[in-house]
Each structure stands twice: as C-alpha cells, then as structure tokens.
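Target protein
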Amino acid sequence: MKPLRFTVQEFYRQFPNNETCLEHLFQTHHGRKVCPKCGESGKYHHQKGTSHYVCSCGGHQISPKAGTIFENSDTDLVKWYFSIFLMSQSRNGVSAKELERQVGVTYKTAWRMQKQIRLLMLDDGALLKGEVEADETWIGGKRKRKNYKDNKTIVFGAVERKGKVSTRIIRDTTEQSLLESVRDNVAKGSQLMTDEYRAYKNIAHIEGYKHTTVRHSKNQWRKGNTHTNTIEGFWSQLKRSIDGTYHVVSAKYLPLYLSEFQFRYNYREHASEHLFSFLLSRVALPHVVAVERIGYGQCLRSA
C-alpha cells in the first residue's frame, strides 16, 4: 500500500467516508487472510450495509474493527481516522475541545477517542544507550522544595543524544527511585550525564554506568561533553505544550500525555504522513505489556 500523503484536502480525498476507511482497515490487517473454512486467501468482500467482510465461500466473516481501538465504538470510522490524522500532525497536541470542534463529536467522545489514540503512541520499551542525559521534573502545582509535591507529579526522563527520550512517573526523588528509573530505561555501560543531585552519587558504583555530572548549583551548565541541556529542552517543550494546549493535566492521566509527547519527540525526523500511517498500522495492537510496565493500567480501566 502506497504511503499516505498529508494535508486536510488529501486526507479527505483518500478517506472521504466510512466505507473507504473500513476498506483501508481491512486491507491493512486482513487483506490476505486465509479463510478457515475453504483454506483460500484474498476472497473476502464487503457485505453491503454492514461493517463485515465475508469470504466468497460464505463460511466465514471478519469484522475489521474487532480487536482494534474502534471496537464497540458508535463513532463514524472516518471521524476516528480524522482524529488520528489531527493528533499525528500537531507539534503541541490537540485538546479534546479542539477535537470536538473539528471532528463534530461531543466533548466526552473526543476525550475518550484521544485516550485510545494515545495508546497507539506508547513506545516499545527499548533501553536507551550511548550518551544519555537524565533528569527529573515536576508537572502541575508550585514547587516548594526538592522532595515536596503539592498537586504536582514527579517525572523522570532520560534522553539519548540525537536519539530517543523515555519518561516515567516516579513516587519520589530518593536514590532508590532514581536508580530504579535509570536501570529500567538506560542500558548498563552507557555514558550517563546528570546534575549533581546526591541521589545519583552512587550510580556508577552500584549500577555500572559511566557517570559524569554538571554542578548547576554553581552555575555550571556544561563540563566538556557533559551537560543536561537536551533533557531540559524536552521538559521545556513538554511544559509549554501542556500549559498552552491542555492547561491542566491530572496526575491520573499524565502518563498518556507523556506517551504522546515522547512519540512526537522520538519521531521528530519522520515526515508527517509517515506518522499517520504508523499510527493506523498500530490500531490493532493492545500494547498490554507496555501499559502494565509503565503503570498505565489505571488510565485504561477508567472510562
């Protein structure tokens, strides 16, 4: 299937209605499926007036929406596709209110659709390696002191130089929490760069990383090749986007917003049409392992 191009006009040329979206969904995930009844492939056709495809032998039918984020949704498939398109194109995110306006659904439906689409953006959990910067930040509320949070959430982040970023919510900034976060996100033997915060002090000895630091408390922002400017730049972009687009994000759903901004950063060099195609290719993937690994279970269980 040829790569998809992206403008709003081109989107509607390729996906003008539910039928074209359903055909794309079927061809992407079931196009050469072998019929368990007759043993032949490529004999399925759309059953008019339904969302099903049936084999010419009449012995088997497929619902392309089954096992995808579209299953059990009454929302038009073309509205789902357009929502994925919008979220794949934006640099700073799309609010549920904006999705409500552009797609023509209720606010509640837009919010639920966004939650499902963000699941498509979850990363594969691969460890970062090479030169890696690590840092922690606070999102929401007003920071009072290092380990005190007032309606705010602590987020750990690590980023490869010229590579990918990985984030996770942590309960505190103790040595145990930060070492665990580094271990779960960064391959051993990597060159780890942090500020001088004491919780990172023993990481080279305990975990086997090559560890160098900069002393921000002494206004030292770079020491040779050591700095944390990359991860701090990611934090700045993340916070500007949250403040400008969403205004407030609850701690309960923050992991899904983090996955969205990680996705944008990690695929920043890809053409926009590839991002849309990539997300459409993942609609049948449940990401259960990734969801449980990074603690998204509560987000999924909530309506």
In short: DSSP finds twelve helices and eight strands in the chain. The mean pLDDT is 86. The two ends are 35 Å apart (CA to CA).
